[in-house]
Records
---
Amino acid sequence: MANRTDIFDLGRLGLSSGEGRHLDLTVSIDPLEFGGQRYQAVPSEVPAKLDVSRTTGSGWFLRLRFDARLSGPCMRCLEDAGKGDAIVVDSREVDQPGSDDDELKSPYLAGDDLDVHAWARDALVLELPTQIVCSDDCKGLCAICGENLNFADPEHAHEAPPDPRWAKLSELKLDR
């Protein structure tokens, strides 16, 4: 496994215009909060692939790729979501110094120092699904008793409450 890299000095690669390099890194990912819950990448340090290309005008084209699993509560059943599918991250950044276009300025580059740590976390957040679940077919919790429906008896059911529109009829006293 490659050494952990938080800040990478692109200048030390010595690339000239048109040259590129492929690097294998280990990136740490900080815990994050999503939907009021705390999630942690498992493991917290993930292997990543960084592709670096030098563009004309002393700019950079960068690509970061890694897979990560998140440990934290499933949004349906509250079990650990870490056994679900890995989140695949494939992020690209362009930095072209001197450009007036904000799309051509990477917030992760300061001179030749690339903040791989911040970029990896932000890229992971952008790839998160709308709901973090333990599996796509998670059944969640019973709305009435709170039982985990993934482990409940297939006949798990509750008597339906009476229709409130007919409630007054139950107060009728019929003489016999």
---
Amino acid sequence: MYKRGVSQNLTPLFSERIHAGFESPAADYEEERIDLNEYVSSYPEATFYARVTGDCMEGSGIYDGDLLVVNRSLRAMNGDVVVGILDGDFILRAYFRHGDHEYLMPDNARYKPIKRTESTQFSVWGVVQHTILDQQRRRNVRIDRLQQLLRKL
């Protein structure tokens, strides 16, 4: 786990939105600056970064090697992706409350839910606010998907 420090450099940010659904006419781009640490959390002293290991949350778009932004000041709500502690180990799951029962749920059918019982205790360590996906690393998966789409045309 990595604790967030104070940023010394601000990252450039386009003032224009980048449209992902349709072509955007050319525009004059005006540059502003953004502190990514400020963007990802209002509570810097409670914000940590962690790297994902494993594939249990792929259904939520979280992949092995991705970077998580975890906020320890937030209370887990139903459906939040959380970093939990189970038997002394950190795990990544979705928090789910159903009736009087609490679960840490995977978002991959190959894994089973973890129910809080007297013999299986877990705690929520922090809530995942953001994930940083390495698009370059996912390129081959995207190419396969795009080739499948082209075959249907």
